[in-house]
Each structure stands twice: as structure tokens, then as C-alpha cells.
Amino acid sequence: MNLYPINAGNFKLDGGAMFGVVPKSLWQKTNPADANNMIDLTARCLLIEDGNRLILIDNGMGNKQSDKFFGYYHLWGDHSLDKSLKNYGFHRDDVTDVFLTHLHFDHCGGSIQWNKDRTGYEPAFKNAHFWSNQDHWQWATQPNRRERASFLKENILPMEVSGQLKFTAVPESDTLKNSALGFDILFVDGHTDKQMIPMIRYKEKTIVFMADLLPTAGHLPLPYVMGYDTRPLLTLDEKEKFLNLAADKEYYLFLEHDAHNDIITVKKTEKGVRLKAKYSAQDIFN
Questions:
Q1: What is the mean pLDDT of the segment spanning 62-83?
Q2: CA terminus-to-terminus distance, the chain
Q3: DSSP of 37-98, one letter per residue?
Q4: Is the dihedral of CA 278, 98, 120, 135 positive or negative?
Q5: E strand or H helix that includes residue 18
Q6: DSSP 132-148
Q7: Which residues pair with 11 in a beta bridge?
Q8: 118's torsion region: left (phi>0), alpha (psi -120 to 50) or beta?
Q9: How deeply is 150 buried, as exposed, middle or buried, from its count of CB atoms within 10 A (0-12, 13-18, 19+)?
Q10: Please, is 223 exposed, middle or buried when counting C-beta atoms within 10 Å of its C-beta (0-12, 13-18, 19+)?
Q11: Which end of the chain lies in a sparser environment, N or C, as judged by fewer CB atoms within 10 Å?
């Protein structure tokens, strides 16, 4: 098995929204804001090369939305999914599986693109299955009013129309062991219903793709919960349970949205679970 970090693009969001009720005087110590209160974020995806399978976890915003739409997110840098794939000798047509932690636009927007005539949409990964779960799919396609702006039908419905959509099982417990993708999946519900957190065994390490359970290293303290979470009190419980396990089991946490930290480990302290060490993806994957 080989693992590759894939940068699908950088963007900015309001720091207050990213840290909820936590005062700026606290969160800006780890995530400094610009003059407009925006903080640096990224869409760091993960590519898994495992035998004859090439599995991409999440794929960023994509490029089919309007300039007005992207203007809200202050794109910066020159990273793109295609450039990142090419850096490792791959093309999107090589991808066999696209695993989507959840269907918010910044995680799945790259799944679908305009067709050649720009008259409709088509899968951006023509040879891949798209993986979600049935509970979250229903949540996303019949969205609540709070999340409606994050679940864009043009990102989601064409997957089903294409016939390339597949669902993982949803376990009775919080973890699906040995999924069809070859890794365990932790299910969490605080951010959005049935978000999936991949847990990948790699060279005697467990790499956990954190998605929006832990957006950045600055979100380690339990109360540091995004304003975007639909059930913030549940996020508190889910974070506490997971971070204690991550400290005990020495998990390596792959951060999808932290523009400046690829992977971290954590430790228990008198103040709770805190940062232990930072790593570049190359440190761990090479």
C-alpha cells in the first residue's frame, strides 16, 4: 500500500464560524486571521494505492461553480487536484474509488464536472465508484434548512444518475470494521449525520483521515467546535471519545483542512488531549 497527500486547493473561511463560541483572542493563537477575519484552510485529500485499487478520499470544491460562488471562499495558491495527482504519476481516470466522508460541497464538489458542451453535468472520475452511505445520502438529498447551502444538488445527484454510486454499510456500533474499501470507518454525527472517518492501517501505523471531526490542529481543545456543526454538544462527546483513543493508540491524524499542518499526534495532559507532534505527509508516507 502507498499513500499520497492530494491538495485539491486552498481557501479561506471566517475564523469565528470555524471556532463557534470560542473567542478570537484564543483561537487566533493557532489560526491567525487576516484583516477580514478569514483564516487559511485547505482541501487536503488522501490517495490510497492498494493493489489494483486507487482510492481517493474526498476531492475538494471542484471548479464548476461560478466566480461569484468562489469569491466567497477567497481561493489562494496554485494547487489543484489534477496537478497533485500528476505529481505522483496519476490521472483522475486512474481512480477506481472515490470515498466521500460527507457531501458538503468542499468535500465532494470535485466529484462532478460540466460536460463538454456545458449543458449538463458528468462524473469527473469516469472509471470510479462513488462511496457514501444510505443514511447520509438521504440527509443530503433531503437537506435541513441549516445545511441546505452546503448540500448542492449538482454535486450530489449526478453520482446516482451515472450509476456509479455505492453505499457502505452503516454499523450498529460507531465503527464499521474492514469495510469494502479495505479500511475501518468511524461514523460520527455531530458535524452532519453519518459523517465517515476512514481509519487506515499503514506500515504498523493507524492513519485517521479527520475530515470535519477535527478540521485543524487548533481545534484540539474540546470546546473548539465549528459553528457549522449541526449538533455541537454531540461533537464535544465524539471528539472527547476519539481524542482519548487517539492518544492511547498513538494514531496519526491526517488533517484535511489545516493549511499548515499535514499530520499530528496527540497526548493526554492535565488540560485534556493536546498536540504531541507535527509531521509532514512525506515524513510518514515515505
A1: 94
A2: 11
A3: SEEEEEEEEEEEEETTEEEEE---S-S-S-HHHHHTTT-BSS--HHHHHHHTT--GGG--EE
A4: negative
A5: helix 15-19
A6: EEHHHHHHHHS--TTTT
A7: 41
A8: left
A9: middle
A10: middle
A11: C
Summarised one tens digit per residue, pLDDT across range 100-118 is 999 999 999 999 999 988 8
H/E element holding 161? Answer: helix 153-162
Residue 78 confidence (pLDDT)? 92
DSSP 127: T
**In the chain, at which residue ranges do the beta strands (DSSP E only) sit?**
2-14, 38-50, 53-57, 97-99, 112-114, 121-123, 129-133, 165-168, 175-176, 184-188, 195-202, 205-209, 252-254, 263-269, 272-279
Q: What is the pLDDT of residue 138?
A: 97
Cβ atoms of 112 and 80 within 8 Å: the answer is no
- Distance between CA 204 and CA 202 in Å, rounded? 6
**Geometric angle at alpha carbon 116, from 110 and 117, rounded to 5°:** 120
* Nine cell digits for residue 125: 472520475
Q: Whole-angstrom Cα distance, residue 97 to residue 54?
A: 6
185: pLDDT confidence band, cut at 50, 70 and 90?
A: very high
Q: Which CA distances in Å does 252 have to 24, 59, 78? A: 28, 21, 27
Helices 134-141 and 153-162, axial angle in degrees (round to 10): 130
Give the cell for residue 232: 455541537
Percent of the chain with pLDDT over 70: 100
Dihedral angle computed from the Cα positions of residues 88, 89, 92 and 96, in that order, rounded to the nearest 10 degrees: -90
Question: What residue has cell string 497526548?
Answer: 267
Amino acid 11 reads: F
- Closest to 137 in 3D by CA, of 155, 112, 162, 110: 155
Residue whose grid cell is 487548533: 218
SS3 159: helix
